Amino acid sequence: MKKTKRENMRVVVEPDMRYMCNPKEEYVKNICETIKQQITRHADEIGDIYIEWDTLVECEYCGWGWELDGEGIPVCCNKAIEEWEKEICDSTGEECRKVSTEETNY
Ligand SMILES: [Zn+2]
């Protein structure tokens, strides 16, 4: 018969972010560091405390999730595509092939 065991038991602490709208990364990191210090100061039996995070990759221009098509070209916005084109031109030394909005008529 199947038996379920609990292992790697740990305490997970999340900072109180209820009243913060879009806080800066560095600000949240400081809050986490402060909580870590406070826990270390007041609690016994601590093996390790570390700060973890999830990583999201997004476009710096439009804020959408970073996604590339089959050819490795960004799909979110024209600015990202233009930047990609510029990188290709810079790296290959070839004359820049413009396929941005100005020349694309839909
Ligand atoms: Zn974009």
In terms of topology, how is this protein built?
Blueprint: H1 25-42, H2 78-92
The structure holds zinc ion.
The site of zinc ion has 7 residues, from loops.
Walk me through the structure.
- There is one protein chain.
- The protein has 106 residues and is mostly helical.
- The protein folds into 2 domains: 10-53; 56-106, no CATH class.
- 31% of the residues lie in helices and 0% in strands.
- It has 2 helices and no strands.
- It has helices at 25-42, 78-92.
- It is elongated and about 65 Å long.
- The model has no long low-confidence stretch (mean pLDDT 88).
- Zinc ion binds at residues 59, 61-62, 64, 76-77, 80.
What descriptive keywords fit this protein?
single chain, 106 residues, mainly alpha, 2 domains, 0% strand, binds zinc ion
What's the total count of β strands?
0
Total domain modules:
2
Give average pLDDT, whole number. 88
Instruction: Please outline the major beta sheet.
Output: none
Small molecules bound: zinc ion
DSSP helical segment count:
2
